[in-house]
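Reminder to self: tokens first, then the designed residues, so the page reads top to bottom the way the pipeline ran.
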């Protein structure tokens, strides 16, 4: 039975991008719903991945690519990277057509550097990243609080919200935000996350740039990344973790190439550091925090299920943080914002800083639950808020973990639910 989902945040973002650009590139992890989302607004579609017509379309693209761009607009070119020359062809058409919203390009990876792409598309092609479904979109969070409202400084409004059981949160972490999986019964949905992981290991990571990569080494890298997620571990730490099970020579350049390939197919999405103006002289750490695009990938890499997380709440907290960052990024992007983290040499850390282009920002601590952990999070946010130099930058619009006592009982999963309005 098909589940009735809420309208996706990406729908509104795509609508806005089409209104202001000649073409929109929608990129993101495979299976997150890019094609379905774009099909809803497209007036005509070219499926480059369709095996029945792929050979014919590739031949026509070589002879007269303009023919493939003909059709009612917005025209969707699905899996455009199968023939990279579409990029310049679309850019050229945008330059010579009046108005906006002519094309939508979708892809699960950007093609490697190639002579077939001669222009960045600046001013013609607007990029947006689409991620797996948030808990609000899947109906697992009631969305009683707006992130955008908090960033505007509005008061937090209390609302009725049915609690989500801890067991359900553990399942959602392991199942992930993959739309089709969420429509299936739980046992099958959990298997689909493993299928996704196996496809990355055995095929996708090598196909992205046509560089053969050892599946066993990819597997070890993803397991190490999973163990080190939510940390600022460098490549040396990853190498040491992998070396235990890799008897061959393993250098950081090799690891970098593997990680970079995972980023190109949107499996890994590390979070940059936030470097604010402070009254303190503490040195700010600038290393990225390691995250997967979806927590289910990390769970599958380690062979973990919901029961394993419930038996190890400390590990559960790290996976929960990945889920939180996935959702926060979606809601922040809808408000033309982004998410980063803060860590200084004194150990003062803030899990997420949601900031907008106008300098407005809010501080967020992610806690799975428990009164002592919530108090610890509140103390952390208060310490950080006090050392921000408000003569050089704004004070935080919000920095209160007190409104986030337990995410499955009306906390941050609801905090961001209506952030796109």
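Designed residues (421 positions):
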């Amino acid at each position: 039975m098909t589940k009735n989902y809420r309208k996706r945040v990406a729908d509104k973002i795509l609508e806005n991008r089409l209104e202001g650009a000649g073409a929109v590139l929608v990129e993101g992890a495979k299976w997150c719903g890019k094609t379905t989302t774009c099909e809803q607004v497209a007036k005509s579609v070219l499926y480059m991945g369709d095996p029945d017509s792929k050979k014919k379309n590739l031949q026509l693209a070589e002879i007269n690519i303009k023919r493939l761009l003909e059709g009612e607009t917005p025209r969707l070119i699905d899996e455009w990277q199968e023939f990279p020359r579409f990029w310049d062809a679309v850019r050229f058409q945008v330059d010579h057509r009046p108005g906006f919203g002519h094309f939508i390009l979708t892809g699960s990876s950007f093609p490697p550097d190639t002579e077939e792409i001669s222009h960045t598309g600046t001013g013609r092609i607007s990029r947006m990243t689409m991620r797996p479904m948030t808990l609000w979109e899947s109906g697992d969070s009631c969305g009683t609080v707006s992130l955008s409202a908090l960033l505007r400084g509005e008061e937090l409004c209390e609302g009725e919200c049915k609690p989500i059981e801890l067991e359900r949160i553990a399942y959602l972490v392991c199942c992930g935000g993959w739309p089709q999986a969420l429509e299936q019964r739980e046992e099958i949905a959990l298997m689909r996350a493993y299928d996704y992981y196996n496809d990355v290991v055995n095929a996708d990571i090598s196909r992205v740039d046509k560089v053969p990569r050892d599946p066993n080494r990819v597997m070890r890298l993803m397991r190490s990344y999973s163990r080190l997620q939510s940390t600022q571990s460098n490549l040396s730490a990853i190498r040491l973790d992998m070396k235990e099970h890799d008897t061959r020579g393993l250098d950081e350049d090799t690891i970098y190439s593997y990680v970079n390939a995972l980023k190109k197919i949107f499996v890994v999405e590390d979070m940059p550091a936030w470097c604010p103006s402070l009254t303190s002289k503490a040195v700010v750490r600038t290393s990225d925090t390691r995250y997967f695009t979806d927590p289910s990938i990390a769970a599958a890499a380690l062979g973990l299920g919901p029961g394993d997380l419930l038996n190890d709440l400390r590990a559960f907290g790290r996976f929960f943080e990945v889920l939180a960052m996935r959702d926060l990024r979606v809601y922040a992007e809808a408000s033309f914002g982004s998410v980063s983290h803060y860590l200084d040499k004194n150990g003062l850390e803030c899990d997420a800083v949601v900031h907008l282009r106008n300098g407005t920002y809010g501080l967020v601590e992610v806690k799975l639950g428990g009164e002592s952990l919530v108090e610890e999070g509140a103390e952390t946010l208060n310490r950080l808020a006090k050392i921000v130099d408000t003569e050089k930058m704004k004070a935080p619009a919000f920095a209160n973990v007190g409104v986030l006592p337990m995410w499955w009982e009306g906390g941050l999963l609801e905090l961001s639910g209506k952030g796109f309005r």
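The longest strand covers residues 349-356.
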